[in-house]
Amino acid sequence: MTILYAAILGLVQGVAEFLPISSSGHLALLENILGGSGLMELDGSAFFNILLHLATLVAVLIAYWRDIVDMFFELGSMAGDLFHGRGLSAQGRPARKLIYMLILATVPLFVIVPFNDAIESLNTIPWFIGAALILTGTLLYISDRLPKGWKREEDMSVLDALVIGVAQGLATIPGLSRSGTTITAGMARGLKRTFAVRFSFLMSLLSVSGAVILQVLDVLEEGIDTAMLPAYGVGMLVAGVTGYLSIRLLQRIVRKGRFGGFAYYCWIVGAVSIIVWLRLSV
């Protein structure tokens, strides 16, 4: 893997991880175009894949540091309340309610774990990824036409969190955008548009961290090619910076505009992927 190639993958990861266009789908399509058979199967890139996700996690931490700090101190308050027998009620404590909702929204991912290998195998099927991208565009198109939501963390229900969590589980399918699917699910459940985006990104801290931990165990058994560290570093830097800028861009779009542009983009990329696959398979 060259430094330029690492930078390209970092750019794709940083942009597509947070903008609602599916990072997994774009990385898989890029690998197929460049002659690979999926990011995880390239020499040394299992470790690189972990590093890219860590870089985008850092981007979320920086973008939402106030929420992270609030929840960190709230965890301390929860420990104190539990120790003194005061209970763990979230009434009047938005940060505590947010913690509960994020944990609940992560639960459906455990159902997906046994199917992880089958889902990863879809990375080598361009027409499937194209179809999933078209579905992502359709979800974004629908989200623009949903009624205006009003719910924030203090208003969320258990069902709201679980529905968004199921959407996140489905978005492990390459081509389905995690952010686009979860934001649409949140808006469909009545979440305020800006909060739906915020909840989606904060939720990624738990889900992506869990996925990284599972991958680390496999990578450590295979070993790490230290000669590739400069390329890995460049890829991480590019992914982190572009990831942060992508978060800020989406926040601005949510406040001032709609997801229509992303919907059309996903439709075009999905359709082109299917057409190219059909031509090559004839």
What does this structure look like?
The protein has about 280 residues and is mainly α. The protein has one domain (about 5-85, about 95-280). Helix content is about 75%, strand content about 0%. The protein is built from 13 helices and no strands. The chain has helices at about 5-20, 25-35, 45-65, 65-85, 95-105, 110, 115-120, 125-145, 160-170, 180-190, 195-220, 230-255, 260-280. α5 crosses α11. The longest helix has 30 residues, at about 195-220. The protein starts with a helix and ends with a helix. Mean pLDDT is about 85; it is low at about 35-45.
Give the tags.
single chain, 282 residues, mainly alpha, 13 helices, 74% helix
Give helix % range. over 70%
Roughly how many Å apart are the termini? 31 Å
What fraction of the residues are assigned to beta strands by DSSP? under 5%
Mean of all residue-level pLDDT scores: 87
> What is the strand tally?
0
Q: Quick one: biggest sheet?
A: none
Spatial extent as radius of gyration: 19 Å
Residue stretches low in confidence (pLDDT < 50, at least 5 long) are: 37-44
Number of helices: 13
Briefly summarize what is shown.
74% of the residues lie in helices and 0% in strands.
Topology record:
Elements (H helix, E strand, L loop, with lengths): L2 H16 L4 H11 L11 H19 L1 H19 L10 H13 L2 H4 L3 H6 L4 H18 L14 H13 L7 H11 L4 H30 L6 H28 L3 H22 L1
